[in-house]
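Today's session is about reading a structure prediction critically. Students often jump straight to the picture, but the first step is always the sequence itself: look for stretches that repeat, for charged clusters, for runs of hydrophobic residues. Only then move on to the predicted structure, which in these notes is written as discrete structure tokens rather than atom positions. Here is the chain we will use throughout the hour.
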Amino acid sequence: MKHLSPAYFALVMATGVISIAAWDFGFAVLANGLFAFNFMSYVVLACLTVLRAVRYPGLFFADMTDHRLGPGFFTSVAASCILGNQFLLIARSLAAATIFLALGTALWIGLTYTIFTAFTVKQEKPPLEKGLTGAWLIAVVSTQSIAVLAALVASEWPQPLRLELNFFSLSMWLWGGMLYIWIISLIFYRYTFFAFSPGDLAPPYWINMGAMAISTLAGARLVQNTSDAPFLASLLPFLKGFTVFYWATGTWWIPMLLVLGVWRHLVRRFPLRYDPLYWGAVFPLGMYTVATRQMAAALDLPFLAPLPPAMFVVALAAWMLAFIGLAWELARLFAKSGR
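Below is the predicted structure for this chain, in token form.
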């Protein structure tokens, strides 16, 4: 608990999106099983995080203001909102989804203005190549997760609250897109102009694609809500254009990340072992599946239909591998503590 990774909520993010994808494809038993496991995981991680903050406040807040570790705290926002999506889509509980939307928004406000203020005013800062990682884009994912859940809840709320919530969702979607442009520019600069070792290519770099995938999903949800909000209808060409823009950008990243992964593990022989950060690589695969399916439906693009099932198989296999790694790690820790 003392050294619990602040990014461990990526486990909930990854499991939640795989569950939603399974529900979309009609695998109700799998979706509900993952939903139950996800809720339990969320509760356990939330309790451990609160206990860590109480028992080790110095270490907890040092992590929060650390350039490499701080952005990992945003996984709690995305995890809350994705769990809210599960409650609405699978359990059909609007009340629970609304509670998780409020919780995610409160966490987002607190973390955003704590972490980025600390990064701005602290006197000792690491150089760009040491302080910047793909985990920074989890801030984008957290923002877009609020946009997705807000749009989904808005479709269930009565008027006139539906109008305000759609505007809130649109605002978060736009802010998330702007934040991605800021951060990805620095990441691309770091890729191409600084020395790059296999150890630098941590699994969260898959968030380069995942941030665009969840932005695509948020755009598709807004397109589907245009009948409920006249201002969205007036922006329809813009919404559709940027949704495709986000999807195309995310798609571009997939071959690039695969090539870099081959370079890391096969060419440079970097060992492949369990790391909680690997959940940050599972999540983008599942999110790309759900986002592509929803975009194809919202924009009437039937030729994309074969892509989501294929990606679902890949995402589910990646989740199973990460889960096996987690089970092995827990077994090792229990065996060590029992000696």
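Discussion point for the tutorial: The longest helix spans residues 161-193.
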